[in-house]
Amino acid sequence: MPNLAVTTWSLEQTSPDDLLPAQAPQGDVRVVRAEVPSPEFSRFLYASVGGDILWTDRLGWPYARWQEHLERDGVETWVAYDRGTPAGYVELSPQDDGVVEIEYFGLIPAFRGRRIGGYLLAYGAARAWDLAERWPGRARTKRVWLHTCSKDGEHAMANYQRRGFKLFDTKVEEETVVATPGPWPGAYPA
């Protein structure tokens, strides 16, 4: 398999005041928390959003690992729906000392370019800031962070920066290119 040089940028907000709002998209777009841990649904979102941008790290996870991850205290999946159809999602993963990672964020390809992404990101970041309100015993959020990379969509970095995220680290690493099946094998051209 060939290798690919991948640049990964880490960004953060250190205060809820850092969060910059986004304009709501036109139409009937709603963001709803998936409150029941569902490996099937989460894997669908992961493969559908990341299939064309080389998300592969979770594809081999067995059902039990998905279930264990989703049942961790504070892990939340927020899903954007356009007229009742899943359009994308944000997965929040709390860490120690009031840190929350936006572990995954993105849109299914058919919904990109419609102003849903900025809105969903702002909504998800706001939910990261108020996560402790929904999870008694969790520390108040003091920092929200995420990473994006050169494999992500061309507008990803600008979207994060428009929402008030600031760059704090950059790394370049070689990765082996792995074919992504998308939501089903062959869904995306190679």
Describe this protein with a few key phrases.
single chain; 190 residues; alpha+beta; Aminopeptidase; 7-stranded mixed beta sheet; 5 helices; 7 strands; 24% helix; Acyl_CoA_acyltransferase; transferase
At CATH level 3, the topology is Aminopeptidase
Shape descriptor reads: globular
Mean pLDDT: 93
Let me know the CATH homologous superfamily.
Answer: Gcn5-related N-acetyltransferase (GNAT)
Measured on Cα atoms, how large is the radius of gyration?
A: 16 Å
Read across the widest sheet, the strand sequence of neighbours is 2-3-4-5-6-1-7
Number of separate domains: 1
Distance between the termini: 14 Å
Domain N-acetyltransferase: 29-190
GO molecular function, one term: acyltransferase activity, transferring groups other than amino-acyl groups
InterPro entries: Acyl_CoA_acyltransferase (IPR016181), GNAT_dom (IPR000182)
Protein name: GNAT family N-acetyltransferase
Question: What does this protein look like?
Answer:
The chain is an alpha+beta fold and 190 residues long. The chain has one domain (3-176): 3-Layer(aba) Sandwich (Aminopeptidase), CATH 3.40.630.30. The protein has helices at 39-50, 63-70, 116-129, 131-134, 156-162, and strands at 3-13, 29-33, 76-82, 85-94, 99-107, 143-149, 166-176. Strands 2-3-4-5-6-1-7 form a seven-stranded mixed sheet, sandwiched between helices. α1 (39-50) packs across α2 (63-70). The radius of gyration is 16 Å and the shape is globular. 29% of the residues are buried.
